[in-house]
Amino acid sequence: MASYSSSSLSRISTLQNHISPLEANNKLRSLVKISPQVSEAIASGRAVVALESTIISHGMPYPQNLQTAKEVESIVRENGAVPATIAILNGVPCIGLNEEELERLASLGKSVQKTAGRDIPHVVATRGDGATTVSATLFFASMVGIQVFVTGGIGGVHRHANHSKIHVHFLLFTMDISSDLTALGRTPIALKKEIKNI
Ligand SMILES: O=c1[nH]cc([C@@H]2O[C@H](COP(=O)(O)O)[C@@H](O)[C@H]2O)c(=O)[nH]1
């Protein structure tokens, strides 16, 4: 009887999450770690700028990646906003990294998993380290109410995505289209991206 009622309660709670997404969002917020500076800034209505972390792990070698990440954060600060670099460390989504966390992510480089929105559950469940692409960063930024986001580059439709090759008995499409595009279309966040010159 006890297990019947607890499973009913869990079903009701799942149903409530569908009916009341705001409440579900609050629950999700409790699963992420927000740095004290970012948390204070959000609470007091100061400008916060989200920054993706794949450019740190996969975009440049160490230690230039660390230096660039710090420079970008200080440009955001010089302009009166609070930077929130986003990554998953030991399975915990972190919104705003301290110096030690930034150093760790940068030195791990490509051994960190490149994490798009669809990869978040896997990285969290396996307590892995994940560098967030635009789609995953958008997910976490919008969850905590950050409205502006800066990136070095977004994914697109890769060459030959719609080309088919006759492959023995079936047609093969690469369909290599970045999930950044759908995430940008669904998330109410302003994105700033410069033309890449690296
Ligand atoms: O000029 C670019 N710089 C950086 C990226 C990184 O790669 C991600 C897209 O990867 P994919 O195409 O696998 O979705 C972006 O969100 C970003 O982190 C990119 O695509 N293009």
From TrEMBL:
It comes from the Eukaryota. The keyword Translocase does not apply. The keyword Hydrolase applies. Keywords: Glycosidase, Hydrolase, Lyase, Manganese. InterPro entries: Indigdn_synthA-like, PsuG. This is Pseudouridine-5'-phosphate glycosidase. The lineage of its organism: Eukaryota, Viridiplantae, Streptophyta, Embryophyta, Tracheophyta.
